[in-house]
Amino acid sequence: MDYKALLAQEYEQKKSQRIELEEQIKTLPKGSVQAKTIRRLQYYYLQFREAGKVTTKYIPDKMLPEIKNKIEKRKALEDKLGLLRKEEEHLAMLLGRHVKYKPVKDIDNSAYTLFMSAVAHDYNRMEKSAFFEMYKPSSFRGLEKKYIKGFTDWINGSYEPRIRKGNDLILDPYTYYMYFDAGDRNILEEQLSSAIPAFLNQGLLITNVQVAVNGS
């Protein structure tokens, strides 16, 4: 079994564990136990937020130990779920997938294409040391910085994987239009399947990136 197949197998296992854990958590009470003293007698309530509102429910004394135990169990499972989600998102990123995916950004395609072409052109004509000196990521800002970082990581053949939340990937106008306006929900999977990991790691899901790097 190759490395990617092993990653895919582990990803599916984490996904299954995450779904199972989420179902367990749903069966347990959320919130915290609050005590109130009324006429010198102490009463206990379960307080939690639901639909944006704080809800309070009375807890009979005989139910108090059980409720407290279930709340503690839920907190422990939620901590475990948080770690599991990070692991799942990390594996998803390595595989070119995203657990959550909602593209929200568009770019100036013409200006960005010119910039990418200029970088590829300079890379071909300049000494490598001079190129890296001119195109230090720290010398750029915004999308240009993301592209330079992705480009240099791609050239070097290595990069430090970052866990992304999936809602900050930047799309080119074509992909943006096809997804939001034309309603083509498959366009994202198509783009992700061919995306260069070093650029995807910077949050760039832009078709012209492929053209620029292939040209270099």
Account of the 3D structure:
The structure is a single chain. The protein has 216 residues and is α+β, with helices and mostly antiparallel strands. It has two domains: 3-94; 109-215, no CATH class. It contains nine helices and five strands; from the N terminus they run αβββααααβαααβα. The strands form two sheets. A three-stranded antiparallel beta sheet has the order 1-2-3, with helices on one face. A hairpin with a 2-residue loop joins strand 2 (41-50) and strand 3 (53-59). The longest helix has 31 residues, at 64-94. The model has no long low-confidence stretch (mean pLDDT 82).
Record keyword descriptors for this entry:
single chain, 2 domains, two-stranded parallel ribbon, 5 strands
Briefly, what is this?
Helices cover 57% and strands 13% of the residues. The chain has helices spanning 3-26, 64-94, 109-125, 128-134, 142-156, 173-180, 187-194, 197-200, 207-215; strands spanning 32-38, 41-50, 53-59, 170-171, 204-205.
Protein topology:
Blueprint: H1 3-26, E1 32-38, E2 41-50, E3 53-59, H2 64-94, H3 109-125, H4 128-134, H5 142-156, E4 170-171, H6 173-180, H7 187-194, H8 197-200, E5 204-205, H9 207-215
Parallel strand pairs: 4-5
Antiparallel strand pairs: 1-2, 2-3
Helix pairs in contact: 1-2, 3-5, 3-9
Global geometry = elongated
Q: Please mark out the parts with pLDDT under 50 across 5 or more consecutive residues, or reply none.
A: none
The radius of gyration computed from the alpha-carbon positions, rounded to a whole number of angstroms, is 25 Å
Q: Strand order within the widest sheet? A: 1-2-3
End-to-end CA span: 33 Å
Helix % is 55-70%
How much beta, percentage-wise?
A: 5-15%
SSE order, as H and E?
HEEEHHHHEHHHEH
